[in-house]
Amino acid sequence: MTTASVDVDTARRDYAALVDRGLSLDITRGKPSPAQLDLANGLLTLPGDGTFKAEDGTDVRNYGGLKGLPELRRIFAGALQVPAGQLLAAGNSSLELMHDAVVQALLSKLPGAERRWADEPTLKFLAPVPGYDRHFALTERFGIELVPVPMTDQGPDMAVVERLVAEDSAVKGIWCVPKYSNPTGVTFSDDVVKRFATMTTAAPDFRIFWDNAYAVHHLTDAEPALADLLALATEAGNADRVFVFGSTSKITHAGAGVGFFGASEANLAWWVGNIGKRTIGPDKVNQLRHALFLEDEAGVRAHMRKHAEIIGPKFEAVDRILTEELGDSGLATWTKPTGGYFVSLTVPEGTAKEVVRLAKEAGVALTPAGATHPHGDDPADAVIRIAPTFPVLADVEEAVRALAVCVRLAAAERA
Ligand code: PMP
């Protein structure tokens, strides 16, 4: 990016005026707003007094049912692109399922593996960047080395991925958010998905962590199609390389939703065998309540349209204000996602941390610069993640205008 010259005195004056306003705003985390949570308040009175039987007669109040309720698995099979029989409904979080998957692979030999991951001398995961900080933190915690791979507007740079997985058997996995990626909003192209399904891996126990967290989270009617990784990999004889994750966290209630895990039959047998040591079964009352509330795939779609009505204007505001404030400046580029929860803002190299610091001093909390990269270190110090869903629209507008003031000052001071 070219750094256009910014008048430093003007930038300082604008910033001083901003600080004087004593703002207190937060656009750090991708949380649903209270208005979005309200959309699913019907859940709070479901399944209702006297309703505790699943469609197959299971008493949801009792133990058991490790795979989750079939009626709920059916509702999400299409969106998550996993046959209902291979999709498990679990607890309230998909992140914990990803954590479980890594821990179980460390402790129990995966299908196709020569040994447990814990017995490998070195473990590596590929980390498309910019990416999701909690993915990176999870693998970092277990000493798994993260190898950055650049994201393109089609998904991860597959030439780099193919080379790394083919030449190094220590590379055991890759983090992917294939639809409306966190934080770039990119949906992986058909070619990228196909290459994931068919590529040659040196590790026989390589796994793609396909975190389809934003599968149904459209902001517009232009809904990009995502190719079906599990089907393509199965067709190519690589069914076991795919772990699919998803959840209703940003569909119903973020803290009280349902997480899903989908995979090949061999992987499921491995999963259920291990998970059965950890739980006698998931919260089926919550699963029944979700099935009754959402009803079917069309019900999910209709519900997501209501979300889009609330958060769509916030995303539009981010784009409009960035365009007004920075559009001609040459100081920033940003993504214009048509779904998901984030906008990724790129500022001049070496200024992202300073922008975040200036914003903090002016009362605007941003996700720490670098959070989108392994170990919190963005070598170019240029990417800032904007999460506009939680604050009310007026606060989003104010925060983004303030952010632009900080971008201009950081660039001016550096010039
Ligand atoms: N994956 C991605 C890509 C996310 O952005 C988030 C939430 N920010 C999660 C997973 C967390 O999902 P859950 O609530 O199901 O644990």
From TrEMBL:
Designated name of the protein: Aspartate transaminase (EC)
* Source organism, top-level taxon: Bacteria
Q: Does the keyword Transferase apply?
A: yes
PANTHER family in alphabetical order: AMINOTRANSFERASE, PUTATIVE-RELATED, ASPARTATE AMINOTRANSFERASE
The record's annotation in InterPro entries points to: AspAT_Ic, PyrdxlP-dep_Trfase, PyrdxlP-dep_Trfase_major, PyrdxlP-dep_Trfase_small
- Upper taxonomic lineage: Bacteria, Bacillati, Actinomycetota, Actinomycetes, Pseudonocardiales
UniProt cross-references to Pfam families, sorted A to Z:
Asp_aminotransf (PF12897)
Q: Which organism's genome codes for this protein?
A: Amycolatopsis camponoti
User: What's its EC?
Assistant: 2.6.1.1
Q: Top EC class per UniProt?
A: transferase
Keyword annotations from UniProtKB, A to Z: Aminotransferase, Antibiotic biosynthesis, Transferase
Entries under Gene3D superfamilies matching the protein: Aspartate Aminotransferase, domain 1, Type I PLP-dependent aspartate aminotransferase-like (Major domain)
Q: Name one GO molecular function term.
A: L-aspartate:2-oxoglutarate aminotransferase activity
Q: Does the keyword Transferase apply?
A: yes
**GO biological process terms, semicolon-separated:** antibiotic biosynthetic process
